[in-house]
Every structure is written in structure tokens, then in C-alpha cells.
Write a sequence for this structure.
């Protein structure tokens, strides 16, 4: 978590140096919540995909422990840069079969409880991914 906090403090310094008025207090903010605003401040970030969280998924992230939140941050960063296929390094990553749309998932942690993240490719032309579930494996919607 120290790495994420140091990256966050660097982003706060950058944002304050370019006088972005929309950022007043940055406490308990995740990296993936800050990155889209950096492009507004004329700071170039090499991201190709936009990630949005559904209302239920954003509520579910508030119930996760710090370790799982940090892993979720890393996954979202991979999804932003690499697209909907973050790579083989993510445990149990796969497309969900038997679905009409392009749904995918991976495990965020092992053990009991096992946490998973599920996302859908909403639009390939505008490169939009929606995370629709983050939580325990037992309650996953697949």
C-alpha cells in the first residue's frame, strides 16, 4: 500500500502544481479515480481504454479490504493500458462462456473468501469497459 500512497502523493503534487480547481481534498481516493482527470490538466497518460464502475460495483468496492483494493487498482490500471485482456498473470482470467455479450473475470485473491472482479466490454470502438461486480466468488453473477 505504500507504493500506491506515494504514487497518489505524486499525483496530488502534479494536480496542485497545475492548479486544477476541481480537486479540493484527495483523501481515500484510488489511483483509477484520479487518472482520467490528469488528461484534463494537460498531462499525457498512455491509456487507451476507459473503465467505468456500475453503481453496484462501486458500492461493493467499499466493502473490500485494503489488500484487495490495491490489487483491484492494479487490475484497473492493466485494463486501462492493455484493454479487456489484462494478461495471463491474473489468476483464473477468462472469458465467461454462454453469454451474449463479451464478459470476462479474474480472481483478485485466493483463499477464503476468494474475491473476483467481473467486467464487460461495452463498446470496442470507443474502448469502454464496465466493471459490474467486485466481491466474493460465492456471490459472483456467473
Amino acid at each position: 500500500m505504500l507504493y500506491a500512497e506515494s504514487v497518489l502523493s505524486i499525483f496530488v503534487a502534479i494536480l496542485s502544481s497545475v492548479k486544477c480547481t476541481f480537486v479540493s481534498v484527495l483523501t481515500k481516493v484510488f489511483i483509477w479515480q484520479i487518472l482520467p482527470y490528469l488528461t484534463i490538466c494537460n498531462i499525457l497518460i498512455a491509456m487507451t481504454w476507459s473503465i467505468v464502475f456500475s453503481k453496484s460495483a462501486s458500492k461493493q468496492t467499499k466493502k473490500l479490504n485494503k489488500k484487495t483494493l490495491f490489487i483491484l487498482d492494479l487490475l484497473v490500471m492493466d485494463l486501462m493500458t492493455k484493454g479487456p485482456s489484462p494478461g495471463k498473470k491474473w489468476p483464473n482470467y477468462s472469458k465467461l462462456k454462454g453469454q451474449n455479450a463479451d464478459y470476462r473475470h479474474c480472481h483478485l485473491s485466493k483463499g477464503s473468501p476468494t474475491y473476483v472482479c467481473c467486467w464487460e466490454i461495452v463498446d470496442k470502438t470507443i474502448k469502454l469497459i464496465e466493471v459490474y461486480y467486485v466481491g466474493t466468488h460465492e456471490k459472483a453473477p456467473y
In short: Residues 18-28, 39-44 have pLDDT under 50 and may be disordered. The chain has two domains: 2-40, 50-139. Residues 66-82 form the longest helix (17 residues).
